Each structure stands twice: as structure tokens, then as C-alpha cells.
Amino acid sequence: MKFTKIFLIATSLIWTILNFFQVITSPTVVNLTSFMGIIPVVSALYSEVDLIYIYFNKARAYFFLKTVSFTPKSSRFIVNNITVDELEQQIYEIIKAESYTFDSSTILKTHEDFYLEIESINGLKNKLTLNLHSENDIQRLTIKADYQIAYRDVKEQWYAFLKLRNELFSHCSIARNTTDRFDVTINTDKQKKFNPFYRLTVRHVGKKEDKKFSLEFKDKNLLVKTNNNKIYGTSNNYKDIEKLIKEYVALSRI
């Protein structure tokens, strides 16, 4: 049924465009008001064709969504028995090798946590958190980064985070019968008219009002939670998170 509807709308659009070119090449006076009917046809295609809907809204967010809060995180149960001091030395070596700089005044340390703010050669800053937590006689190592960046930079910074994460975890063997975990949170609360969605969206029916909403679903191994101005995803496979980052859409109207 949906295919038939799209086919009819597309046919109408093509026919209207052909008539338009035929008329403007005609020597007679052109009445362009007769082609106003193309507007509802384009609107119908926007509503019915997923790719048009997704890429139009991605382009809109690319130019107008200036700041999002992007928080990737990953954890692993490790067999190595390490301390926060040892972890601190490892991360110093890694960020130096990756050409990051850091402000020593931002460093905070507890018996389980280590915090510092780092800056890339492109001038992008993020707050890095490392955590060591004992669970059932083994340690869980967690790395998290907090970015305030433009919508268009999210995918690039995901790869930058993943590189740091892989370098750090390469020093620590994974415990038997455990799996790595990957999480991501994207928050648009600095520009509240945008709401991020992945696969499922909500839409107002009738008079538009400010309503709170919450969606939760699974896409194979990926668990997704969405509510006002925020989307969260978690999986044991980093490719699921990459897919969410690549395909999520920030809508300015729902």
C-alpha cells in the first residue's frame, strides 16, 4: 500500500516537472501559479519516503544544530590488577602519543576515579573520566568522555574516543566469560527545539503542545532509550553504537 502511494506521488511529481519545462519553453505567456500543486506533492514525498525524511532532517540539523552534548562510554572486566596511579601513567602516554594536550589544573583523582580535560590538535576539548571498580573479585575498567560539540562533529569524535579507548584497553586483558560494553548519550538540551530519534519517532496529532515522551526498544543487541532532547544507546558491540550515531535524526518539529 505504501509503495503504491509513493509510486503515485512520484509519478505526479515527474508529470508536473515535465509540464513545467514544456510550458516555460513555450512562446506563449507562462502562468506559473498553475504549478503550485507541486508543493503538496513534494510534501507528500517528504512524509512517505523514509530516505527523503531522514536526509532532509539530517541536512537541517547539520546547518542549524550548533551544540550537542555527546558522551561515549565503554567498560571492560579485566584480569589485570591495576591501580588508579598506574592507569594515570598509561593515559598520559596515550594522550601524548595521540597529540592531545591537557591542563594539569583540571586533574582530579580518587581511589577509583581519574579525571582530566584534554584538547585535540584541532582545538576540541573533552572531559575524560577513567574509573576502576571491583566487582566479584575482578576489576571493571571504564572510560568516558564528555564533549560539547556541533551535531556535524559527533561521528568524528566517536572515532577519536574509540581510538583512545582501544589504546587503553589494549593494556588490559578481558576477563573470561565477560563482554565489553559500549554506551552513548546524545543530549540537545542547549537547543531544546531539536529532539534526537533513531528508527522510531513521535509526532503530535492535533494542537501542538509541549509534552514529555519516552521511547524504549531493542534493535537486536542495541538497546535504545529516547526522551525529550536525549537519546541513549547501549550494546556489547561498538558497531551498533556506530550505526546509531550514523543514522539518528535530530528533529526540530514533532
How would you portray this structure in words?
The protein is α+β, with helices and mostly antiparallel strands and 254 residues long. 35% of the residues lie in helices and 30% in strands. The chain has helices at 2-24, 38-48, 50-64, 84-97, 154-169, 238-247; strands at residues 68-78, 101-102, 108-109, 113-119, 125-135, 138-149, 181-187, 195-197, 214-219, 222-227, 230-235, 249-251. Strands 1, 2, 3, 4, 5, 6, 7, 9, 10 and 11 form a 10-stranded antiparallel beta sheet that branches. A two-stranded antiparallel sheet has the order 8-12. The radius of gyration is 24 Å and the shape is globular.
What's the structural blueprint in terms of helices and strands?
Elements: H1 2-24, H2 38-48, H3 50-64, E1 68-78, H4 84-97, E2 101-102, E3 108-109, E4 113-119, E5 125-135, E6 138-149, H5 154-169, E7 181-187, E8 195-197, E9 214-219, E10 222-227, E11 230-235, H6 238-247, E12 249-251
Antiparallel strand pairs: 1-6, 1-7, 2-4, 3-4, 4-5, 5-6, 7-11, 8-12, 9-10, 10-11
